[in-house]
Amino acid sequence: MPTIVVDVMPKAELLDPQGKAVTGALSRLGVEDFSAVRIGKRFELTVEGEVTDEVLAEARRIADEILSNSVIEDVVGVEVVE
Fold this sequence. Notes:
This protein has two helices and three strands; from the N terminus they run E-H-E-H-E. By secondary structure, the protein is α+β, with helices and mostly antiparallel strands.
């Protein structure tokens, strides 16, 4: 069955306290290669049958209206994986 993956991230201009905590933990562990971490959400929507343009449009609508908070988050990806 095909799956539609929706990725949601905090808006770039907002502080990401979880990402900041992970960045600090990496530094304490001696990992210095990464200057910042941002943490988001991934949703996997399993589709019964074929992914048509209408199904993909519905997934985008759901991503914008239900899966993300448009005040503080951006939907950064909606893609089909087999």
